[in-house]
Fold:
Amino acid sequence: MSVAPDDGVDFEPGPLNRSATFYVAGHRGTVGSAIMRRLATEGFTSVVGASSADLDLTDRDAVFAYFARTKPRYVALAAAKVGGILANTTCPVDFLTQNVQIQANVMDAAVEHRVERLVFVGSASIYPRLADPPISEDALMTGPLEPTNSAYAIAKLAGVMHVQAVRRQYELPWISAIPTNLYGPNDNFSPQGSHVLPALIRRYHKAAASGLDTVTNWGTGSPRREFLHVDDLAAAVLYMLEQYDGPQQLNVGTGTDVTIRELAETIAGIAGYDGATEWDTSKPDGTPQKLLDTSKLSKAGWAASISLEDGLRSTYAWYREHLDSLRE
Structure:
């Protein structure tokens, strides 16, 4: 199902050329690596990426030179500086400037080389803190952002606006995907940089392995969160590129949420931890509830297929298999 744009872009979505060059920015990250796996499964034969050691995406000249060499026809912009509440509240300038630089450099280079299709992977943090759940795409810029990650949210909001501006000025059929909270292989499990789900996996695994009697988590455990496996997001990204066109960002999620307390209990069980869990209520909870309205993508014919229980079990298994090489 294609959705007609309302910004003058004349484009009909359809199957992508499997032999054309497809650049995945951030191909070693959680999202980018999932997109790489999906493209390989779908038969794409010319997928390229560059590690941060080989290409600094905040270096504008280097990014433009990379595009001149590789000449991609398609781009998935999944590169970003990400982190949990602690990292966001400690280093907001880094999250704002680095993400804006990455997005502007990649998209400006893509414009110069007239990349046919680009999908920008944003974040649900762009929506107001107290937007009524489930949060629809129309809630954008209707209220204040969550203070604990507002700098990151502003950067991601700039990315969505950049895509819309390119559509208006250059009439290129680019799109934005807004996923809910993500998890899966290649996630960041470090104490300083992880989001809530990988942080809980690490914490309960170590507690079970060490025989601890008590685990202490941040906040009250009452906030509700929706979680999407990155392999589902990767499937949605390709589906959108082939089935959707329009200026408005599309939400990607499961349509269901759980409390952080429920999530912790499930992960504790999977990790084999049978001790007590305490909650440090002096620490912030963040947004009370973050559940996306995914009806527009659902009407376009796509739905998530990995249950939270199955996704948590496979992610924990991946974590245990890669303990010696995890990002710290």
Summary: Residues 291 and 300 are 19 Å apart (CA to CA). The chain is about 40% helix and 15% strand. The chain has a mean pLDDT of 95.
